[in-house]
From TrEMBL:
InterPro entries referenced in this protein's UniProt entry, alphabetically: HypE, PurM-like_C_dom, PurM-like_C_sf, PurM-like_N, PurM-like_N_sf
Protein name per Swiss-Prot or TrEMBL: Hydrogenase expression/formation protein HypE
Coiled-coil ranges per UniProt: none
Organism: Streptomyces marispadix
CDD domains xref list: HypE (cd02197)
Amino acid sequence: MSETTGLAQPGTEPAAPDFSGWTCPAPLRDQPRVVMGHGGGGALSSELVQHIFAPAFGGELLAGMPDSAALTLGGTRLAFSTDSFVVRPLFFPGGSIGDLAVNGTVNDLAMSGAQAAYLSCGFILEEGVEVPLVSRVAEALGAAARTAGVEVATGDTKVVEAGRGDGVYLNTAGIGLIPEGVDIRPQRAVPGDVVIVSGAIGAHGVAVMSVRDGLEFGVEIESDCAALGGLVQAMLAVTPDVHVLRDPTRGGLAAALNEIAVAAAVGVVVNEKAVPVPPPVANACAVLGLDPMYVANEGKLVAFVPREHAEAVLDSMRAHPLGAEAAVVGECVEAHPGMVVARTGLGGTRVVDLPLGEQLPRIC
């Protein structure tokens, strides 16, 4: 995969590898048909957006590829986001598709520093689905909205023929207010920033997979699904100068860090031992051959914070229930721009690539 080998001539010092010249021998955009990986939040998803959707839609707001778009309307700064949810099964330990629909959109708004205010909700129902099941999903969604402090202000319902859906799909869109002085976006990451994760990773993806495939790991693993708006506001109360926030959902922490590194043209170094992983998740991933850094989360965030504010921001996170296990996991560097590197427990290093697709499809 390397275009530059860095091999030295006899009698000379070996040259450092030139990462900037690396290319992929099989461009992902040449994939002739849509596959499950196109919805997984990895390289295939990125290619689909960059080569199909972005050119078709145009516009500067979309070009930055944020979790939510920051808009100015009538002199007011707003964040606007939309998301669709196709998780299977509809209910899983620690949550449901209704919880995901609310928390996923609220969290996307929070990653711009916005306080979510209103949501829309679209139900796409398959003919034949039980009405009591639809009611359970709606009740879960309403409860999650009340917990997150947002109002479902508008919605839509469609029904597709039997066999053309999977019971219930949801779409939510949300708007929220961005506080004055807050400018949070991937392009603001700079060398010297401290990378903080709000807590243990990997629980959501493993929880969904365990009930979907009937797997038992000796202990029930629950999703971390939660609305992060309150945690973000606690962080911004310390300083509005938080550079980047991202919720590592599809593709996990690895995808989030790669997206930020590419957007800001910086390198990221992660201390692998510092990344918090619950022992049951670590054990499950070891059995299944998965890397926890690539497993989805639905109630965690990763923050890039200026070093002078990092300790105070970390303390504020640990004082919040959703950030009690927050940890510094790495830093932003000038070297290897656009690339994420992990220092392993054995003292070596490895490249943490953007995942191709999704290890565990249909997890959100």
